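Consider this:
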Amino acid sequence: MERVTLLLFYLYLLVFPLGQLGRLPLNIPSVNLYLTDLLIILLNLVWWPYYLFHKHLTRSKTLVSFAIFMLIALISLLLNPLHLAVSQLLISFLYLLRFASYVGLLGYLKTSHIKISARVLVYLSVVIAFFGLVQYFLIPDLHYLQIFGWDPHYHRLVGTFLDPNYTGIIMVLGLLLLLKIKTKSKADYLFLLLLFIATMLTYSRSSYLAYLVGLVLLGLQKRAWKQTSIGIVIFILSFVLLPRQAGGEGLNLQRTSTINARLQNWQQAVRVISDHPLLGVGFDTLRYAKLSYHWLGADSQISHSAAGFDSSLLTVAAMTGLFGLGAFLWWLVVIIKSTKTKIYLHLPLLVHSFFVNSLFYPWILGWWLISLCTE
């Protein structure tokens, strides 16, 4: 069984860079399943019955805090105020299981004692950056994807995730992880350049901010203020010299349209939280909640932004209420305290999640959880 789960884990890493291209054709409205999801679910189904039969599960703060959050999330779903149909409840419950499966990946890596090099995650980010650069130069105009529920990005690097913010933070995390590695080869410096250029071409301000936060934290950890200052200067110069093609609103880094849209999005989240403060509207029921508030149009079933808000913590609070938010924050604090040497990854991701629902994006969640077990 250990060999089977190890094979499933390696297959997961192999298909990871495919992103949205690994989507399975279920043809079920508002339901998305990917090769990465399927492999993670299979890994959990194989590993945990085997492990629990042969060994004893040790109770820890991480396990307890996560179990409490999952219990509150389940209760919030069962007691949701939206009068959902059985099929809608089932869909939301399946997404809850998917989230649990990804956290189960962390448990698998801890209990199986697999040794993972940090370079594995760096290479994943590098491959994603390479795919992104191919897309940027060969398919710069993605307006045609708007009919499939995606934003009409123009001359922005979006990669296989079809979103510059999610792609950006994956590359930022890989960049920070590579900067942390002490002994670097010539190839590593090439990878640094590749990741940095690709990150800048996303024009993702949340990713830029996450990178700067991580750079400062690395400077604090390594006491390398000279290198950090040089890194910040290079970032500022690159920021100024970024190409600005005509007709691309997303290329305008002083744009206010997205800021106004995000503020409106946050106001909607606060409205949901104030209306349902204790247990929210139920885990992964925000698409249905937005419909009940008449915030969604005819594209609600295909929209890729309808299932959450532009902030992971606001999304948690709206879905599971203040009880769920408290349990979720406790789980995060326990994880961060137990792996505090990786604060240069934790804090940038949390900063990014203030502006994008990145903590619940499967690839980002998977990358981050694996990073907790790297050497």
Remarks:
- Residues 180 and 218 are 7 Å apart (CA to CA).
